[in-house]
């Protein structure tokens, strides 16, 4: 503590010093509540309420086997499309999103960690908003396909963008049920 601050505190009457110390303690407790305790306690209450709801529904009884109905409700992973089928589906969604597909070609195939990766490269042209709609449609309609690379360049003479899109089909090799 600096000597100047110490001299100021010594010069204060005891009542004012007690008020200052009490204020500092209250501020420290409020900071501890806000930063350290409030979020974990809220999460604890939320988990406790969820557990109570599950117990009320009868699904969280100790020692009970998992119900067979929930096991049947698990849906298998979607079957990945073939490259040509993917090109057709992407071209169809491009037409619906006002995107002009200039070319589409099947690319390399490789296996990484037991997952077969098939690439498809698509060159297209569109306005930026149409491009966003198209990419959203691809992600929504093709759950086993990921975007590996996306290049967007402005065209000199129009408002359109030149797009190069490389899609990757993730095939785990599991046969459909």
From TrEMBL:
InterPro entries: T2SSM_b (IPR034756)
Organism: Massilia aurea
Membrane-traversing stretches: 20-41
Top-rank taxon: Bacteria
Annotated keywords: Membrane, Transmembrane, Transmembrane helix
Protein name according to UniProt: Type II secretory pathway component PulM
The UniProt record lists the keyword Membrane: yes
């Amino acid at each position: 503590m600096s000597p100047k601050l110490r001299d100021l505190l010594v010069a204060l009457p005891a009542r004012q010093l007690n008020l200052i110390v009490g204020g500092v303690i209250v501020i420290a407790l409020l900071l501890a509540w806000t930063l350290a305790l409030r979020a974990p306690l809220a999460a604890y209450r939320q988990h406790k309420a969820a557990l109570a709801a599950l117990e009320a529904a009868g699904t969280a009884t100790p020692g009970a086997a998992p119900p067979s109905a929930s096991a049947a409700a698990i849906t298998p992973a979607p079957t990945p499309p073939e490259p040509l089928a993917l090109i057709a589906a992407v071209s169809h969604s491009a037409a619906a999103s006002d995107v002009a597909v200039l070319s589409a070609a099947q690319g390399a195939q490789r296996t990484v960690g037991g997952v077969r990766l098939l690439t498809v490269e698509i060159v297209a042209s569109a306005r930026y908003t149409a491009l966003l709609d198209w990419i959203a449609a691809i992600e929504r309609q093709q759950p086993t396909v990921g975007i590996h690379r996306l290049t967007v360049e402005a065209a000199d003479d129009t408002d359109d963008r030149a797009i190069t899109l490389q899609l990757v089909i993730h095939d785990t090799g599991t046969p459909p049920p």
